[in-house]
Design goal:
Elements (H helix, E strand, L loop, with lengths): L6 E4 L2 H4 L3 H8 L3 E4 L2 E11 L28 E6 L3 E8 L6 E12 L1 H8 L14 H4 L19 H8 L44 E6 L7 E4 L13 E4 L30
Antiparallel strand pairs: 1-7, 2-3, 2-7, 3-6, 3-9, 4-5, 5-6, 8-9
Length: about 270
């Protein structure tokens, strides 16, 4: 993983007031903070607006579920998917445009111990956030598994949300920090076995979300390609990641689910 210091200055709202496919690569290397846990983003996906992007939740317009995406830029859009876990997005463009960037993966740079505890199912996050990703639900109980590797703590959108303690109740939170200078989060170097840039976060009120400057990815390390696991607009190259970073999740193309032979018009196999 990269080494170096992290900029703790919060990103302004204007940063998000752009098309999602422009914001997305600029988010790589930035730091998302929720409470004491901080994640440096290494993989994201952009989604367009109503009538423009068939893969976006807003493609058919505003609904109760996606209403946050039509609000001001810089807010969190958190949704529940597969009946199992939450995913977090950052809203882009001015109000009424309905666009966002999905946060797919990152490196935990503050309170990895708490992120690991949450991922193991016994953290202090809200009950609705204590859910395991699809990949984690298979196999032996958490108590009998090997410790979760650092690179896997937020490797994938569901894992990232769990590590940060984000769930349904955080949908709509403003991720643009506009508090007083005295309340700004501060990163400080740590020693020992911690990575050089590892940091402890202080000064951010409980329940607050913020996106900090972090350490933006170098232009020549940013890669783009098709978005993961979607069935429509699947060739749109709006997935962006930091090349070679071990926290980036594996690319998985959409695979149609086979219809169950026992499925009927009343109870069909669920679609993806």
């Amino acid at each position: 993983m990269d080494s170096g210091t992290l900029d703790s200055a919060p990103l302004p709202r204007g940063f998000f007031d752009r098309p999602s496919h422009e914001v997305a690569p600029d988010l790589l290397g930035r730091v998302l903070v929720h409470g004491p846990v901080a994640v440096r983003l290494t993989e994201v996906e952009a989604y367009g607006g109503p009538g423009e992007d068939p893969a976006a939740h807003t493609y058919r317009g505003r609904t109760a579920r996606n209403a946050v995406m039509f609000g001001p830029p810089g807010h969190l859009y958190v949704y529940f998917t597969y009946g199992m876990h939450f995913c977090a997005n950052l809203v882009c463009l001015p109000e009424d445009h309905g666009s966002a960037v999905l946060l797919r993966a990152g490196e935990v740079v503050a309170r990895a111990d708490l992120a690991r505890s949450r991922r193991s199912g016994d953290g202090d996050g809200p009950p609705s956030s204590r859910r395991e990703s699809i990949a984690d639900r298979d196999g032996p109980p958490a108590s009998r598994r090997r410790p979760i590797a650092d690179r896997d703590l937020a490797r994938g959108p569901a894992r990232l949300a769990v590590a940060l303690g984000l769930a349904r109740e955080h949908n709509g939170l403003d991720a643009v920090w506009e508090g007083s200078a005295a309340g700004l989060p501060r990163f400080s170097e740590t020693g020992g076995a911690q990575p050089e840039h590892a940091a402890w976060l202080t000064g951010l009120p409980k329940g607050t979300v913020a996106v900090l400057g972090g350490r933006p990815a170098e232009a020549d390390t940013i890669r783009s390609g098709p978005r993961t696991g979607i069935s429509t607009a699947k060739d749109t190259p709006w997935r962006f990641w930091i090349d070679g970073d071990p926290t980036v999740s594996p690319f998985r193309p959409h695979t149609p689910r086979r219809r169950s032979t026992a499925a009927t018009s009343v109870g069909e196999a669920p679609s993806s």
